[in-house]
Amino acid sequence: MQVPIVMFPAIMAITTDETKANDDDQVHQKGVKNLCENGVTKVPKKYILPEFDRADEVLQVDLTMPNLKLPVIDFSELQGPNRSEVLKSLTSACEKYGFFQVVNHGIPNNVISSMIDVSARFFELPIEVRSKYMSSDLTAPVRYGTSFNQNKDRVFCWRDFLKLVCHPSQDVLVHWPSYPTDMRRLAVTYAKEIKNLFVMLMEAILESLGLWGATMNMTEEVEKLIKQFQDGSQQMVVNCYPPCPEPHLTLGMPPHSDYGFLTLLLQDDVEGLQIQYKEKWVAVQPLASSFVVNVGDHLEIFSNGKYRSVLHRVLVNPAKSRISVASLHSLPFNSMVSPSPSLINKANPRRYKDTDFACFLEYISSFEPKRKNFLESRKLL
Ligand SMILES: O=C(O)CCC(=O)C(=O)O
Ligand SMILES: [Fe+2]
Protein backbone atom coordinates (compact mmCIF):
# COMPACT_ATOMS: atom_id res chain seq x y z
CA MET A 1 0.00 0.00 0.00
CA GLN A 2 2.97 2.27 0.67
CA VAL A 3 4.07 2.37 -2.96
CA PRO A 4 1.02 4.01 -4.56
CA ILE A 5 0.89 6.55 -1.74
CA VAL A 6 4.48 7.59 -2.48
CA MET A 7 4.01 7.50 -6.27
CA PHE A 8 0.74 9.35 -6.43
CA PRO A 9 1.95 12.83 -5.52
CA ALA A 10 4.98 12.40 -7.80
CA ILE A 11 2.76 11.55 -10.78
CA MET A 12 0.49 14.43 -9.92
CA ALA A 13 3.48 16.76 -9.80
CA ILE A 14 4.68 15.71 -13.27
CA THR A 15 1.22 16.06 -14.74
CA THR A 16 0.77 19.49 -13.21
CA ASP A 17 4.13 20.73 -14.51
CA GLU A 18 3.43 19.42 -17.98
CA THR A 19 -0.02 20.96 -18.02
CA LYS A 20 1.47 24.24 -16.88
CA ALA A 21 4.10 24.11 -19.62
CA ASN A 22 1.40 23.51 -22.22
CA ASP A 23 -0.76 26.24 -20.78
CA ASP A 24 2.16 28.63 -20.92
CA ASP A 25 2.71 27.77 -24.53
CA GLN A 26 -0.92 28.48 -25.30
CA VAL A 27 -0.63 31.74 -23.45
CA HIS A 28 2.47 32.72 -25.45
CA GLN A 29 0.67 31.98 -28.69
CA LYS A 30 -1.92 34.62 -27.74
CA GLY A 31 0.72 37.32 -27.78
CA VAL A 32 2.41 39.86 -25.58
CA LYS A 33 -0.44 42.37 -25.38
CA ASN A 34 -2.46 39.66 -23.71
CA LEU A 35 0.41 38.91 -21.29
CA CYS A 36 0.54 42.58 -20.34
CA GLU A 37 -3.23 42.75 -19.91
CA ASN A 38 -2.83 39.90 -17.45
CA GLY A 39 -0.32 41.89 -15.43
CA VAL A 40 2.99 40.25 -16.34
CA THR A 41 5.80 41.68 -14.19
CA LYS A 42 8.75 39.59 -15.41
CA VAL A 43 9.71 38.49 -18.90
CA PRO A 44 8.71 34.81 -19.18
CA LYS A 45 11.46 32.36 -20.12
CA LYS A 46 10.08 31.93 -23.63
CA TYR A 47 11.13 35.53 -24.46
CA ILE A 48 14.58 35.55 -22.87
CA LEU A 49 17.25 35.73 -25.54
CA PRO A 50 20.66 34.14 -25.08
CA GLU A 51 23.02 36.88 -23.89
CA PHE A 52 24.77 36.97 -27.23
CA ASP A 53 21.56 37.94 -29.06
CA ARG A 54 20.51 40.72 -26.69
CA ALA A 55 20.84 44.42 -27.42
CA ASP A 56 24.17 44.79 -25.68
CA GLU A 57 24.90 48.42 -24.80
CA VAL A 58 28.51 48.00 -25.89
CA LEU A 59 27.37 47.34 -29.45
CA GLN A 60 25.37 50.57 -29.71
CA VAL A 61 26.99 52.99 -32.04
CA ASP A 62 28.35 56.19 -30.66
CA LEU A 63 25.97 58.70 -32.21
CA THR A 64 28.62 61.36 -32.06
CA MET A 65 30.73 59.25 -34.43
CA PRO A 66 32.05 61.54 -37.17
CA ASN A 67 30.32 61.22 -40.57
CA LEU A 68 27.31 59.44 -39.14
CA LYS A 69 24.41 61.29 -40.67
CA LEU A 70 21.37 59.19 -41.37
CA PRO A 71 20.01 60.24 -44.77
CA VAL A 72 16.83 62.28 -45.09
CA ILE A 73 15.34 62.65 -48.57
CA ASP A 74 13.11 65.64 -49.27
CA PHE A 75 10.62 64.10 -51.67
CA SER A 76 9.30 67.47 -52.90
CA GLU A 77 12.82 68.33 -54.12
CA LEU A 78 12.72 65.26 -56.36
CA GLN A 79 9.97 66.90 -58.42
CA GLY A 80 11.91 70.15 -58.97
CA PRO A 81 15.17 71.46 -60.47
CA ASN A 82 17.26 69.68 -57.80
CA ARG A 83 16.17 66.20 -58.89
CA SER A 84 19.66 65.13 -59.97
CA GLU A 85 21.16 66.19 -56.62
CA VAL A 86 18.47 64.30 -54.72
CA LEU A 87 19.05 61.24 -56.91
CA LYS A 88 22.71 61.30 -55.89
CA SER A 89 21.69 61.35 -52.21
CA LEU A 90 19.32 58.47 -52.92
CA THR A 91 22.12 56.43 -54.51
CA SER A 92 24.43 57.07 -51.59
CA ALA A 93 21.69 56.27 -49.02
CA CYS A 94 20.83 52.96 -50.73
CA GLU A 95 24.48 51.95 -51.16
CA LYS A 96 25.80 53.01 -47.79
CA TYR A 97 22.89 52.41 -45.41
CA GLY A 98 20.17 50.57 -47.38
CA PHE A 99 17.94 53.03 -45.63
CA PHE A 100 16.67 56.63 -45.66
CA GLN A 101 13.86 58.72 -44.22
CA VAL A 102 11.54 60.59 -46.55
CA VAL A 103 9.93 63.94 -45.69
CA ASN A 104 7.62 66.27 -47.66
CA HIS A 105 6.13 63.23 -49.39
CA GLY A 106 2.68 64.72 -49.95
CA ILE A 107 0.64 62.16 -47.97
CA PRO A 108 -1.79 64.19 -45.85
CA ASN A 109 -1.10 64.24 -42.11
CA ASN A 110 -4.63 63.12 -41.26
CA VAL A 111 -4.20 59.94 -43.36
CA ILE A 112 -1.03 59.14 -41.42
CA SER A 113 -2.35 59.95 -37.95
CA SER A 114 -5.61 58.05 -38.61
CA MET A 115 -3.64 54.96 -39.60
CA ILE A 116 -1.64 55.03 -36.37
CA ASP A 117 -4.75 55.78 -34.36
CA VAL A 118 -6.90 52.98 -35.79
CA SER A 119 -4.00 50.53 -35.44
CA ALA A 120 -3.68 51.36 -31.75
CA ARG A 121 -7.45 50.93 -31.34
CA PHE A 122 -7.32 47.51 -33.01
CA PHE A 123 -4.85 46.27 -30.39
CA GLU A 124 -7.09 47.63 -27.62
CA LEU A 125 -9.91 45.29 -28.71
CA PRO A 126 -10.56 42.28 -26.45
CA ILE A 127 -8.27 39.33 -27.19
CA GLU A 128 -11.32 37.28 -28.30
CA VAL A 129 -11.93 39.76 -31.15
CA ARG A 130 -8.28 40.09 -32.15
CA SER A 131 -7.59 36.38 -32.07
CA LYS A 132 -10.39 35.67 -34.57
CA TYR A 133 -7.81 36.66 -37.18
CA MET A 134 -5.11 34.26 -35.98
CA SER A 135 -4.00 31.92 -38.74
CA SER A 136 -1.01 29.76 -39.49
CA ASP A 137 -1.69 30.14 -43.23
CA LEU A 138 1.09 32.42 -44.43
CA THR A 139 -0.94 33.41 -47.52
CA ALA A 140 -4.13 34.38 -45.62
CA PRO A 141 -5.38 37.90 -46.56
CA VAL A 142 -5.42 38.83 -42.89
CA ARG A 143 -3.32 37.34 -40.14
CA TYR A 144 -3.05 38.26 -36.48
CA GLY A 145 -0.11 36.86 -34.60
CA THR A 146 2.83 37.34 -32.32
CA SER A 147 6.64 37.13 -32.28
CA PHE A 148 8.49 36.99 -35.62
CA ASN A 149 7.42 33.58 -36.89
CA GLN A 150 5.48 31.98 -34.06
CA ASN A 151 5.52 28.55 -35.68
CA LYS A 152 9.30 28.47 -35.86
CA ASP A 153 10.80 30.84 -33.27
CA ARG A 154 12.51 29.07 -30.38
CA VAL A 155 12.63 32.33 -28.44
CA PHE A 156 9.64 34.61 -28.91
CA CYS A 157 9.98 38.34 -29.43
CA TRP A 158 7.95 41.07 -27.77
CA ARG A 159 5.58 42.09 -30.55
CA ASP A 160 2.08 41.33 -31.77
CA PHE A 161 1.09 42.04 -35.36
CA LEU A 162 -1.77 42.28 -37.79
CA LYS A 163 -0.81 41.52 -41.41
CA LEU A 164 -3.07 42.83 -44.13
CA VAL A 165 -2.61 41.72 -47.72
CA CYS A 166 -3.60 44.77 -49.80
CA HIS A 167 -3.75 43.44 -53.32
CA PRO A 168 -6.04 42.74 -55.20
CA SER A 169 -8.23 44.94 -53.02
CA GLN A 170 -11.56 43.66 -54.36
CA ASP A 171 -10.67 40.15 -53.08
CA VAL A 172 -8.91 40.90 -49.82
CA LEU A 173 -10.80 43.82 -48.30
CA VAL A 174 -13.80 41.76 -47.23
CA HIS A 175 -11.48 39.68 -45.03
CA TRP A 176 -9.95 42.66 -43.21
CA PRO A 177 -11.09 43.22 -39.62
CA SER A 178 -14.59 44.62 -39.27
CA TYR A 179 -13.60 46.20 -35.91
CA PRO A 180 -12.77 48.95 -35.24
CA THR A 181 -15.57 49.81 -37.66
CA ASP A 182 -13.50 52.49 -39.42
CA MET A 183 -10.44 50.27 -39.82
CA ARG A 184 -11.08 49.14 -43.41
CA ARG A 185 -11.84 52.65 -44.63
CA LEU A 186 -8.81 54.25 -42.99
CA ALA A 187 -6.40 51.42 -43.81
CA VAL A 188 -7.43 51.25 -47.46
CA THR A 189 -6.95 55.02 -47.87
CA TYR A 190 -3.53 54.75 -46.27
CA ALA A 191 -2.62 51.69 -48.39
CA LYS A 192 -3.43 53.55 -51.65
CA GLU A 193 -1.42 56.63 -50.67
CA ILE A 194 1.60 54.62 -49.60
CA LYS A 195 1.46 52.52 -52.77
CA ASN A 196 1.62 55.70 -54.92
CA LEU A 197 4.56 56.95 -52.93
CA PHE A 198 6.28 53.58 -53.33
CA VAL A 199 5.84 53.68 -57.13
CA MET A 200 7.24 57.23 -57.34
CA LEU A 201 10.18 56.27 -55.14
CA MET A 202 10.86 53.25 -57.35
CA GLU A 203 10.84 55.46 -60.46
CA ALA A 204 13.49 57.59 -58.76
CA ILE A 205 15.46 54.55 -57.62
CA LEU A 206 15.45 53.05 -61.13
CA GLU A 207 16.74 56.40 -62.35
CA SER A 208 19.38 56.45 -59.62
CA LEU A 209 20.52 53.03 -60.87
CA GLY A 210 21.09 54.59 -64.30
CA LEU A 211 18.24 52.67 -65.97
CA TRP A 212 16.63 55.83 -67.32
CA GLY A 213 17.01 59.59 -66.80
CA ALA A 214 17.03 63.14 -68.08
CA THR A 215 19.02 62.14 -71.15
CA MET A 216 17.62 58.65 -71.58
CA ASN A 217 13.95 57.73 -72.08
CA MET A 218 12.39 54.89 -70.16
CA THR A 219 13.29 51.59 -71.77
CA GLU A 220 10.75 48.79 -72.22
CA GLU A 221 12.29 47.12 -69.15
CA VAL A 222 11.68 50.20 -66.97
CA GLU A 223 8.14 50.81 -68.28
CA LYS A 224 7.24 47.17 -67.64
CA LEU A 225 8.68 47.27 -64.14
CA ILE A 226 6.74 50.40 -63.19
CA LYS A 227 3.51 48.79 -64.40
CA GLN A 228 4.36 45.71 -62.34
CA PHE A 229 4.98 47.84 -59.25
CA GLN A 230 1.61 49.58 -59.74
CA ASP A 231 -0.06 46.21 -59.88
CA GLY A 232 2.38 44.53 -57.51
CA SER A 233 2.14 42.81 -54.16
CA GLN A 234 1.62 44.94 -51.08
CA GLN A 235 1.38 43.79 -47.52
CA MET A 236 0.89 46.01 -44.50
CA VAL A 237 2.22 44.80 -41.17
CA VAL A 238 0.78 46.63 -38.21
CA ASN A 239 3.15 46.08 -35.27
CA CYS A 240 2.35 46.57 -31.62
CA TYR A 241 5.14 46.51 -29.02
CA PRO A 242 3.62 46.76 -25.54
CA PRO A 243 5.77 48.01 -22.64
CA CYS A 244 8.12 45.28 -21.49
CA PRO A 245 9.00 44.82 -17.80
CA GLU A 246 12.59 43.71 -18.54
CA PRO A 247 13.41 45.12 -22.00
CA HIS A 248 17.13 44.24 -21.88
CA LEU A 249 16.29 40.50 -21.92
CA THR A 250 14.36 40.45 -25.19
CA LEU A 251 13.71 42.28 -28.46
CA GLY A 252 10.61 43.59 -30.23
CA MET A 253 11.96 42.12 -33.48
CA PRO A 254 15.19 40.23 -34.02
CA PRO A 255 17.69 41.34 -36.67
CA HIS A 256 16.14 40.71 -40.09
CA SER A 257 15.88 42.11 -43.58
CA ASP A 258 12.58 42.59 -45.45
CA TYR A 259 11.81 40.50 -48.54
CA GLY A 260 10.37 43.11 -50.97
CA PHE A 261 11.84 45.95 -53.06
CA LEU A 262 11.14 48.64 -50.49
CA THR A 263 9.51 48.82 -47.07
CA LEU A 264 7.88 52.13 -46.16
CA LEU A 265 7.58 52.29 -42.41
CA LEU A 266 5.33 54.58 -40.44
CA GLN A 267 6.11 54.77 -36.74
CA ASP A 268 4.60 56.68 -33.84
CA ASP A 269 6.82 58.93 -31.73
CA VAL A 270 8.35 56.14 -29.63
CA GLU A 271 11.92 55.18 -30.51
CA GLY A 272 12.74 51.50 -31.03
CA LEU A 273 14.00 50.83 -34.56
CA GLN A 274 17.71 50.28 -35.12
CA ILE A 275 19.56 49.59 -38.34
CA GLN A 276 22.89 47.88 -38.69
CA TYR A 277 25.67 50.03 -40.01
CA LYS A 278 29.28 48.86 -40.12
CA GLU A 279 28.54 46.00 -37.67
CA LYS A 280 27.03 48.45 -35.16
CA TRP A 281 23.43 49.26 -34.30
CA VAL A 282 22.21 52.77 -35.00
CA ALA A 283 18.96 54.07 -33.51
CA VAL A 284 16.57 55.70 -35.97
CA GLN A 285 15.06 58.77 -34.34
CA PRO A 286 11.39 59.10 -35.30
CA LEU A 287 10.86 62.23 -37.43
CA ALA A 288 7.35 63.67 -37.37
CA SER A 289 5.34 63.05 -40.57
CA SER A 290 8.12 61.05 -42.20
CA PHE A 291 8.54 57.51 -43.45
CA VAL A 292 11.49 55.26 -42.88
CA VAL A 293 12.30 53.55 -46.17
CA ASN A 294 14.51 50.51 -46.38
CA VAL A 295 15.90 48.51 -49.25
CA GLY A 296 14.57 44.95 -49.21
CA ASP A 297 16.00 41.66 -50.48
CA HIS A 298 14.29 41.97 -53.89
CA LEU A 299 15.93 45.32 -54.60
CA GLU A 300 19.29 43.95 -53.52
CA ILE A 301 18.79 41.09 -56.02
CA PHE A 302 17.44 43.39 -58.76
CA SER A 303 20.36 45.80 -58.37
CA ASN A 304 22.74 42.80 -58.39
CA GLY A 305 24.05 43.81 -54.97
CA LYS A 306 24.62 47.54 -55.66
CA TYR A 307 21.91 48.47 -53.16
CA ARG A 308 22.02 46.53 -49.89
CA SER A 309 18.99 45.23 -48.05
CA VAL A 310 19.60 46.47 -44.54
CA LEU A 311 19.53 44.43 -41.37
CA HIS A 312 17.31 46.02 -38.74
CA ARG A 313 15.80 45.18 -35.35
CA VAL A 314 13.44 46.68 -32.80
CA LEU A 315 14.09 47.38 -29.11
CA VAL A 316 11.32 47.55 -26.55
CA ASN A 317 11.04 49.77 -23.50
CA PRO A 318 9.51 49.53 -20.02
CA ALA A 319 7.22 52.56 -20.21
CA LYS A 320 5.59 53.09 -23.56
CA SER A 321 3.67 51.02 -26.05
CA ARG A 322 4.88 51.50 -29.63
CA ILE A 323 2.95 51.17 -32.90
CA SER A 324 4.45 50.92 -36.39
CA VAL A 325 2.98 50.13 -39.79
CA ALA A 326 5.35 48.57 -42.31
CA SER A 327 4.21 48.51 -45.92
CA LEU A 328 6.13 45.96 -47.98
CA HIS A 329 6.03 46.23 -51.77
CA SER A 330 7.23 44.08 -54.60
CA LEU A 331 6.35 42.76 -58.05
CA PRO A 332 3.09 40.81 -58.50
CA PHE A 333 2.94 37.67 -56.38
CA ASN A 334 3.94 35.24 -59.16
CA SER A 335 6.60 37.34 -60.90
CA MET A 336 10.25 36.39 -60.86
CA VAL A 337 12.74 38.84 -59.40
CA SER A 338 16.08 38.72 -61.20
CA PRO A 339 19.14 40.94 -61.36
CA SER A 340 18.46 43.60 -64.02
CA PRO A 341 20.16 42.55 -67.29
CA SER A 342 21.24 46.19 -67.66
CA LEU A 343 23.24 45.98 -64.44
CA ILE A 344 25.11 42.78 -65.28
CA ASN A 345 28.27 42.73 -67.31
CA LYS A 346 31.66 41.02 -67.41
CA ALA A 347 33.04 43.21 -64.65
CA ASN A 348 29.93 42.75 -62.57
CA PRO A 349 28.57 39.24 -63.18
CA ARG A 350 25.21 38.01 -61.92
CA ARG A 351 25.37 37.44 -58.15
CA TYR A 352 21.88 36.11 -57.31
CA LYS A 353 19.51 33.38 -58.44
CA ASP A 354 16.00 34.28 -59.60
CA THR A 355 13.45 34.29 -56.84
CA ASP A 356 9.71 34.73 -56.41
CA PHE A 357 7.30 35.09 -53.53
CA ALA A 358 6.41 31.41 -53.45
CA CYS A 359 10.07 30.54 -52.97
CA PHE A 360 10.28 33.00 -50.05
CA LEU A 361 7.18 31.51 -48.39
CA GLU A 362 8.53 28.01 -48.83
CA TYR A 363 11.77 29.10 -47.19
CA ILE A 364 10.19 30.74 -44.17
CA SER A 365 7.85 27.85 -43.52
CA SER A 366 10.84 25.48 -43.40
CA PHE A 367 13.53 27.49 -41.59
CA GLU A 368 13.74 29.72 -38.59
CA PRO A 369 14.19 33.19 -40.14
CA LYS A 370 17.54 34.52 -39.00
CA ARG A 371 19.21 37.73 -40.07
CA LYS A 372 19.55 37.67 -43.88
CA ASN A 373 19.49 33.89 -44.29
CA PHE A 374 16.83 33.90 -47.03
CA LEU A 375 18.86 36.28 -49.16
CA GLU A 376 22.02 34.27 -48.46
CA SER A 377 20.19 31.22 -49.84
CA ARG A 378 19.63 33.12 -53.13
CA LYS A 379 23.28 34.07 -53.62
CA LEU A 380 25.30 32.46 -56.38
CA LEU A 381 28.58 31.16 -55.10
O1 LIG B 1 8.59 48.47 -35.99
C1 LIG B 1 9.58 48.78 -36.62
O2 LIG B 1 10.21 49.83 -36.41
C2 LIG B 1 10.13 47.88 -37.70
C3 LIG B 1 9.17 46.86 -38.19
C4 LIG B 1 9.79 45.92 -39.16
O3 LIG B 1 10.97 45.83 -39.29
C5 LIG B 1 8.93 45.05 -39.98
O4 LIG B 1 7.68 45.05 -39.80
O5 LIG B 1 9.49 44.33 -40.84
FE1 LIG C 1 11.48 44.78 -41.10
Could you please describe the fold and organization of this structure?
By secondary structure, the protein is α+β, with helices and mostly antiparallel strands. The chain is 35% helix and 16% strand. Strands 1-2-10-7-12-5-4-3 form an eight-stranded mixed sheet. The model is unreliable at 1-19 (pLDDT under 50). The structure holds 2-oxoglutaric acid (AKG) and fe (ii) ion. Residues 256, 258, 263, 312, 326 line the site of fe (ii) ion.
Main traits of this protein?
381 residues; globular; four-stranded antiparallel β-sheet; binds 2-oxoglutaric acid; oxidoreductase; dioxygenase; binds fe (ii) ion
Look at the helices and sheets and give the structural class: alpha+beta
- Summarize the main sheet: 8 strands, mixed
Strand fraction equals 15-25%
Distance between the termini: 69 Å
Organism: Citrus sinensis (Sweet orange)
Keywords: Dioxygenase, Oxidoreductase
Protein name: Fe2OG dioxygenase domain-containing protein
Write the SSE topology.
Elements: H1 2-29, H2 32-37, E1 72-74, H3 75-78, H4 83-96, E2 99-103, H5 109-124, H6 127-130, E3 142-146, E4 160-165, H7 169-172, H8 183-208, H9 220-230, E5 234-241, E6 253-256, E7 262-267, E8 273-277, E9 280-283, E10 291-295, H10 297-302, E11 312-314, E12 322-329, H11 357-366, H12 373-377
Parallel strand pairs: 1-2
Antiparallel strand pairs: 2-10, 3-4, 4-5, 5-12, 6-11, 7-10, 7-12, 8-9, 8-11
Helix pairs in contact: 4-8, 5-8, 8-9
This protein binds 2-oxoglutaric acid and fe (ii) ion.
